[in-house]
Amino acid sequence: MPKPFSYEVTHVCRQSGARLGILHTPHGDIETPIYMPVGTAATVKAMTPREMEEIGTQILLSNTYHLHLRPGEDLIQEAGGLHRFMDWHKPILTDSGGFQVFSLSKIRTIREEGVTFQSHIDGSRHFIGPETSMDIQQALGSDIAMAFDVCTAYPCDYDTARINMERTHRWAERCRAYHTREDQALFGIVQGAFFKDLRIESAKVLADMDMIGYGIGGLSVGEPKPLMYEMLEAMMPYMPSGKPRYLMGVGSPDCLVEGVLRGIDMFDCVLATRIARNGTVLTSRGRLVIRNAAYARDFAPLDDRCDCYACTHFSRAYIRHLFKAQEITAGRLASIHNLRFLIHLMEQIRQAIREDRFLDFRKEFYEMYDMSRNF
After folding, report:
1. Which of 342, 334, 252 shows the shortest CA–CA distance to 290?
2. How far apart are CA 348 and CA 315, in angstroms?
3. pLDDT reported for residue 246
């Protein structure tokens, strides 16, 4: 009987070393490198599952913390699991809830057994530990579950980074020992903050656990981008080459390009839909704030290089009008565009790797992309 999960590197760019791969899952194959849209509460904001398929989405991410608090994993399990509940038939990844426990809770207590925290919704008290996180994610029935980890803020001191990293390793072992669902892959998460020796140590320890894939956590948390790239370069030689590598919470166009160059296979971020709802769109020339008066009589598409529904049917002037009129459609069109822009960018990246010209693609990207209009 074939294994429900496997990963294969299908091509390595001779020009850059960037790689193509396929992650096989029970709900379909995922071509990497890939950007994963975020459906925090079992939906990508402003989007329907059919629209997500139309823009080329291969896999969605949902959030353990939010779904645990509302509506609860028991209800979702009763409904037939997360795929059926949200009518999404392709792969789903659920994060462990660790980042939200540490970033959203006003009151939290971290102990070896796990974290007691206060709900951001109603102030009620809850507990999540490694075993609890596994129980929740197994009830949700996602294709990929993430081990429960300790997130470290930026900046932090070395001792705090080491303590949190070592606890993350112990929690990963507990997750691995407790996790039993064979049709769900378990990924570990490399930590170590912004200290190269800790990042390398964490990569080695997690690699020895021989998990199906590995997330890289604790980056893109406010640090300068060159520092993030420095950490990736330090740890990547110690990350298993035959396993998918997932840079968590990263989704600006330049970071996708730079991450792929450094060996990353999977990305996710709420940036695309969050800024869309506020009237900001991603373009091949950089960020564009469509609410600005400069676009009141601009009848060009949001991006003349984009093939999304918004760009092929509507003008900047029209979409700006919708935002100024506070029409719901405004945020929907901007969301469609931003998500398709990133998915299309990854399609272009995969094609460039396939043709052994990724460095040329990267050069062309920066020749057009205005970094002064970046994030």
Report:
1. 334
2. 24
3. 98
Specify the DSSP class assigned to residue 90.
S
For tokens 């969605």, the residue is: 60
**Residue 34 to residue 339: CA distance in whole angstroms:** 12
Q: CA-based Rg of the chain, rounded to a whole angstrom?
A: 20
Residues 6 or more apart from 51 whose CB is under 8 A from it? 336
Catalytic residue ranges: 95, 268
- Give the helix ranges, DSSP H, for the chain: 49-54, 64-69, 73-78, 82-86, 98-104, 130-140, 158-178, 196-208, 225-235, 253-261, 271-277, 309-313, 316-324, 328-354, 358-368
Q: How far apart are CA 38 and CA 40, in angstroms?
A: 6
The two tokens of residue 205 are 């320890």
The span from the CA of 191 to the CA of 215, in Å, is: 9
- Which residue bears the tokens 């020339």? 285
Determine the pLDDT at residue 2: 64
pLDDT of 120: 87
Distance CA 247, CA 231 (A): 11
Predicted confidence at residue 93, as pLDDT, reads: 98
pLDDT of 14: 98
Q: Is the pTM of this model over 0.90?
A: yes
**Angstrom distances, CA of residue 168 to CA of 111, 163, 189, 212, 291:** 12, 9, 8, 17, 43
Q: What is the pLDDT of residue 105?
A: 63
d(CA 237, CA 260): 14
How far the first Cα of the chain sits from its last, in Å, is 47
Q: pLDDT under 50 in the chain at which residues?
A: 1
The β-bridge relationship of strands 34-36 and 28-32 is unpaired
The full length of the chain comes to 375
| Distance (Å, whole) CA 141 – CA 84 | 10
CA distances from 252 to 51, 224, 256, 335, 338 (A): 22, 13, 6, 14, 11
